[in-house]
Amino acid sequence: MSAFPAFAVGQQAATGSTGAFGVSTSSVNGVGSAPGAGSTRPGETFHRLATYPVFLNAPADVDPADETVAEISAISEDGNTLVHTDAAARRIGFLDISDPAAPRGLGSLSLAELGSQHDEPTSVAIVGDYVLVVVDSSTSFTSPSGRLDVVDLATRTRVRSIDLGGQPDSIAVTHDGAHAVIAMENQRDEDVLADTGEGEEGDLPQAPAGFLQFVDLPSADPATWQTRPVELDVAALSAAGLDTPQDAEPEYVSINPSDTKVAVTLQENNGIAVLDVVSGELENVFSAGDVALEGVDVADDGAIDQTGSLEAAPREPDAIGWVDDEHVATANEGDWKGGTRGWTVFEAATGDVVWDAGTQLEELAVRVGLHNDDRAGKKGVEMEGLAVATLDGVRYAFVGSERSNFVAVYDVSDPASPRFVQVLATTNGPEGILPVPARNLLVVSSEEDSAKDGVRASVSLFGKGKRYSAAAGSPAFPSIVSADVRTATGASKPIGWTALGALSADPAKRDRLWTVTDAAKSPTSILSVSTAGQRGKKARPVVIDREIVVTEDGEPVGLDAEGIWARPSAKGRTGGFWLGVEGATGTENALVRVSASGRVEERVSLPDGVAAGLGKWGIEGVTGTVDRTGEHLFVALQRGLTSDDGVGGYARIGRYDVATGEWTWFGYPLSAPTAAGDWVGLSEVTMVDRDTLAVIERDKLNGPAAALKAVYTVDLPRRASSEGVTMLDKELAIDVLPALRATNGWAQEKLEGLTIGGDGHVYAVTDNDGVEDATGESVFLDLGKARKLFR
């Protein structure tokens, strides 16, 4: 199913409207407004307010580098205290979000101290003055165990512990606080054969089967609370066509708006069951069905090829939410047999599909640069989290992509025709999605955490409407998107892009820039970026509207392009581009001249003595100028040569005379690293005027640790020796770190693209590393007018 209409390269399509992304859109194939549309309705925008890394809330005696995650969250009745699970550290964390733009850590509670070192929280809910913590205490898959800990919210003391008789997963509480339902998964062991001894490791059945625990909460006193285990009828599951019905594995539970029914996903069984909240009676059970996809990337090969197809596979839904009392929506993550890269709305009474996202979310990820090619051959965007809530009178579904790090927002006022509203960038692995309707907030808990990669689990907060606009991140996400083009199959798809590590102004068009993809994408693409309409009160993202695939000897080629300069056309020069290409070894670094159509026409190696002194940090930027003596290029090397001063001290900037082939070298003094294990280097160079260069100097740090993301200028001497290195003096022009922090997201590490556009504005962009060991968010910045910044 096509989620996006056609977009004519370089111009608006003749039909449809211009949505929030500035991309032509329309309603397609009954799917409703496509993800390219977005929302332009006043007050509907969700603003990112804060991103809180949860390692900051760990106990004082815990190493900040230790893994700590945020998975499922709950909110106190006054909407001010957030509680989240942390299975990695076997804790629950507390945050004060009374000011959602400045969340404050309130410490944590160790479950290991309440039970044993094996105890992991799997879910959490709040009822009145108490936190209901669902705990997996299992020491084996064959003997699952768990409990419900009731913790006083104010004192953080456990007032009661209730045995659950198995391994729990999620919990849901009725809106009136009278009942709770817990999914008792009794999960499978992925490393053993099924009980039948057949099939592959991880197959079902694996006894014991899962069930549901109903918890009656007749009063505010936890001493009166009672559990009622409810088994799922094997015959009913079998009749509904569920996979391995004798081993039901409940995953996620949700209660309808009128507090009468609970829906539960049976992920590994590819089914959904609906039960009465009071009696526990099974009212309906149905298969989640299969979906085949056409027009998606299906190979982990570096390319973004949206012409692949997937045979019909089970949805295997994870999270579930009630759209209204008659419809449920599921995030179709998949598990061992399936995953359909989307989400679906079902009629709860019949199991009929009333709407399915098809390829929408795959295309959305490509459009905003969050396509994770590493997952293309598996489950793609892998939709896992989902929540439905009413904010300001509008019913919204929030659907989270575990692998592409975003939440898609839909208006589901009409369950049969969800309308895409917005895409929100998160940190890695968004798991828990928690709307707070009373405060018009959305809280997203992300679980991926790796201190060595600079990827830390966090809680992100978003606010809806004008009341939060003053605290909103700037620029809003996405700040750069791609337009649609026709694929080889005739389908309309967004231009595939990722890892933008360079920028250059177009020499002839004031509202046109050029960028290029690095080694994260193969073959290499040179991309045209339109900045028209980017500024002003109704500013839109800049738009990638043309792709030029780089070829060599007639075949597409993959280069680690880290710099680009668009050549002016003139007598004897036919335009095209110079690319600065970083090599795996010093000798593989080169300047590569490419025609306007993308054909490699010339390679210029670095001098032998320079190449020999390079480690894995080579060319990181290229710019150029043309004067009466000819064409001259300037190239920035990221770090110092081993033959100069190790990898510290200074980095080299080289001047290459195209006509004579001569090199002249300058030394750029590098700032000292601010943290152990960090380094500082150059990542871009651009011409300010005939004798002034601007360079990006940055550290290797991101998030709250980021310390140096800056643009410096250096004046070139009128005469420089062709022998040795002439040292330069630098002057700070722009501290870019405040602008990166102003997004209220994760401060990005790789500020790598910089240029002065034909309109006189200074533009910068971050390299998203292809969504690998990074949040994947690309930040495109208009830093202001060059005449004011470079004086």
Short characterization:
This protein has 6 helices and 59 strands. The chain is mainly beta. The strands form 17 sheets. It has a 5-stranded mixed beta sheet, with no helix packed on it. It has a 5-stranded mixed beta sheet with strand order 48-49-50-51-55, with no helix packed on it.
Please write out the topology.
Blueprint: E1 17-18, E2 24-25, E3 46-53, E4 73-75, E5 81-86, E6 91-96, E7 104-110, E8 120-127, E9 130-136, E10 146-152, E11 158-163, E12 168-173, E13 179-184, E14 211-216, E15 226-230, H1 234-239, E16 250-255, E17 261-266, E18 271-276, E19 282-287, E20 290-296, E21 308-314, E22 320-322, E23 327-331, E24 343-347, E25 353-356, H2 360-367, E26 383-391, E27 394-401, E28 406-411, E29 419-425, E30 430-436, E31 441-446, E32 458-464, E33 480-482, E34 484-486, E35 492-494, E36 504-505, E37 512-516, E38 525-530, E39 542-549, E40 551-552, E41 555-556, E42 561-566, E43 569-570, E44 573-574, E45 577-581, E46 590-594, E47 600-605, H3 608-612, E48 619-627, E49 630-637, H4 642-645, E50 650-657, E51 663-669, E52 680-689, E53 692-699, E54 709-715, E55 725-727, E56 730-735, H5 737-741, E57 751-756, E58 761-766, E59 780-785, H6 786-789
Note down, in words, how this protein is organized.
By secondary structure, the chain is mainly beta. About 5% of the residues lie in helices and about 40% in strands. Strand 16 (about 250-255) and strand 17 (about 260-265) form a beta hairpin. It starts with 16 loop residues before the first strand and ends with a helix. Mean pLDDT is about 90; it is low at about 1-35.
